[in-house]
Automatic annotation (TrEMBL), chain A:
Keyword Nucleus: yes
Compositional bias segments (type: Basic and acidic residues): 295-304
Record region (Disordered): 234-266, 295-344
Membrane spanning residue stretches: none
Domain of life of the native organism: Eukaryota
Compartments, record wording: Nucleus
Protein name from the UniProt record: Ribosome biogenesis regulatory protein
Species this protein is from: Drosophila grimshawi (Hawaiian fruit fly)
UniProtKB/TrEMBL annotation, chain B:
Record's protein name: 60S ribosome subunit biogenesis protein NIP7 homolog
Family assignment from sequence similarity: Belongs to the NIP7 family.
Gene coding for it: Dgri\GH19597
Organism annotation: Drosophila grimshawi
Presence of the UniProt keyword DNA damage in the record: no
Keywords: Nucleus, Ribosome biogenesis, RNA-binding
Subcellular location: Nucleus, Nucleolus
One GO cellular component term noted in the UniProt record for this chain: nucleolus
Subunit relationships: Interacts with pre-ribosome complex.
Keyword Nucleus: yes
Residue intervals of the PUA domain: 95-174
Any one Gene Ontology molecular-function term assigned to this protein's record: RNA binding
Length: 344, 180
């Protein structure tokens, strides 16, 4: 009996070394075996934490781990190469996404415009009836180009165009141009959606740059000297680039000129006025003639004022003597009698 | 209130010179204090510096109008005078045109002046010369641009336009909201 007792005692001692596999909890833990996750909804004990935090937490973790292991052992197991294997079920916990969810796709410029104006897409039929070919022709895609070729096998050269122009080539060019334009617009839409900073100045090439961009590039280039373009020559009718955000690009320009400056502004203004007024006027023939006429008239008037003329009317013709009157001369007796003055 | 850029100042003076010639200097060179041109929301204001200093207290958004509005710059950088400028232009006018009393009202409703409405005209005015329009009793009514030179006026039909209407004092009522 002693032996049995000793053995039992020894076994008991060995058992005491290990904690029991049953764990008691006030609230049941939520176990998701699929992800090997256990969530303990029970409150932590404040007193235990205050007394010995590390030990208490280690204990708690062991208990919970035990529960998880128990749950795993409940699964059907099998033996593979001398080890016991359990197949985990599908995880039930929903894990949050790693990255932020994608937002709404930003609208393209056309979509935005169409929405504003209330334009909706009209669905076109897949095939349309062609009057010229007298058959149904695909609106787009497979065999559309072929039908187009059949339809426009000859093209008219307009009256005002060079008779040797290749109208087919012209048509193709037009189409290629459209495709290129669409590509540019697509790129612009991407840029707009990503909110990437794009260079607003710089030479984009004669095909791509608009006149405004060219003007901006010229203005910026001119101001990009050591003296910020102060001594650069100007063309007679040169314009400076203006517009939103252009000023920031031009070096040397101040964002805000001061509101008030005492003397210099007035002086500068007067100088500018002088230069404006001293501009050589264009030769205005009409005005010159009218001025000349006025001068002449004034001269004449002055002359007339110097020697007051009694006579009115034409001064150039000189009236010499009196108008001859009739009935006053001596009659020539030999002649035929004529009464009164001579009538002509 | 911004100072005008060099380009805009030049445009302004060129336009002023069109109407009042060398008298532009008198607007800047005044014995009664310093006057200057300022820009606010594309409008040109002619302000005494004393008033300008007072206006500094107000922000860009609060400020509606300071001094006299002379005109407005269009988006293509062209200046158009408002009728409010007439008070400063009329005394310095070099070329004048007088309208007959019968045509005064027509002009004040924004119509061009035909030969039949023409009372008197300054000698030697060329075509497209900026002129100030007066009534026969020498009251400034507005300003315009000559469509015909003075010499051409003499031979013109009674119905041909002599002076293009640019601005008239009727605008004080017609365009009250956009004037200042």
């Amino acid at each position: 009996m002693d032996v049995v007792k000793a053995v039992l005692e020894k076994h008991q001692k060995e058992l005491d070394k290990y904690k029991p596999i049953t764990v008691e909890k006030h609230l049941e833990c939520r176990i998701d075996v699929g992800t090997l996750l256990i969530t303990d909804p029970n409150d932590l004990e404040d007193r235990q934490i205050a007394k010995n935090k590390e030990e208490y937490l280690a204990e708690l973790t062991r208990d919970n781990t035990q529960l998880l292991v128990n749950a795993i052992w409940e699964l059907p197991t099998e033996r593979v190469d001398e080890s016991i294997v359990a197949k985990l079920p599908e995880p039930t916990t929903v894990l949050p996404r790693l990255r932020k969810p994608p937002g709404v796709r930003p609208m393209t410029k056309w979509e935005k415009f169409a929405k504003e104006k209330g334009i909706t897409k009209k669905k076109k039929d897949k095939k349309t009836y062609d009057d010229v070919l007298d058959k149904w022709v695909p609106t787009y895609g497979f065999k559309h180009a072929e039908a187009e070729k059949d339809k426009e096998w000859v093209l008219e050269v307009p009256q005002n165009a060079d008779p040797n122009t290749d109208m087919f080539q012209k048509k193709m060019d037009l189409r290629n141009e459209k495709v290129a334009k669409n590509e540019i617009q697509r790129m612009k839409n991407i840029v707009r959606a990503k909110k990437v900073e794009m260079p607003r100045s710089g030479y984009l090439g004669p095909e791509a740059a608009s006149s405004n961009q060219l003007l901006t590039a010229v203005t910026v280039a001119k101001a990009s000297t050591a003296s910020v373009g102060k001594f650069q020559n100007k063309l007679p009718k040169e314009k400076e680039a203006r517009g939103l955000g252009v000023k920031e690009l031009i070096p040397g320009g101040k964002r805000k000129a001061s509101h008030i400056s005492a003397q210099p502004e007035r002086e500068a203004n007067l100088e500018l006025i002088k230069s404006v007024l001293n501009k050589k006027p264009k030769l205005n023939v009409d005005k010159a003639i009218s001025l000349q006429k006025q001068d002449e008239r004034l001269e004449r008037e002055a002359e007339a004022g110097n020697k007051p003329a009694k006579k009115k009317g034409k001064g150039s013709r000189k009236a010499v003597g009196k108008k001859p009157k009739g009935h006053q001369g001596q009659r020539a007796p030999g002649k035929k009698g004529q009464a009164g003055r001579k009538r002509r | 209130m911004k100072r005008l850029t060099d380009e805009r100042t030049k445009i302004l003076f060129e336009k002023l010179a069109k109407y009042i010639g060398p008298n532009v200097q008198q607007l800047i060179d005044r014995p009664d204090g310093t006057y200057c041109f300022r820009e606010h929301r594309d409008r040109i204001y002619y302000v005494s510096e004393r008033i300008l200093k007072l206006s500094e207290c107000f922000g860009y958004k609060q400020l509606v109008c300071v001094g006299t509005c002379f005109g407005k710059f269009s988006k293509t950088n062209k200046l158009k005078f408002h009728i409010t400028a007439l008070y400063y232009l009329a005394p310095y006018a070099q070329y004048k045109i007088w309208v007959k009393p019968s045509y005064e009202q027509q002009f004040l409703y924004g119509n061009h002046i035909p030969k039949s409405g023409l009372g008197r005209i300054t000698e030697n005015a060329g075509q497209y010369q900026g002129v100030i329009v007066f009534s026969m009793s020498d009251l400034a009514l507005g300003f315009g641009v000559l469509a015909r030179s003075t010499t051409e006026c003499k031979t013109a039909d009674p119905l041909t336009t002599v002076c293009f209407h640019q601005s008239d004092i009727g605008e004080y009522i017609r365009a009250e909201d956009s004037l200042f």
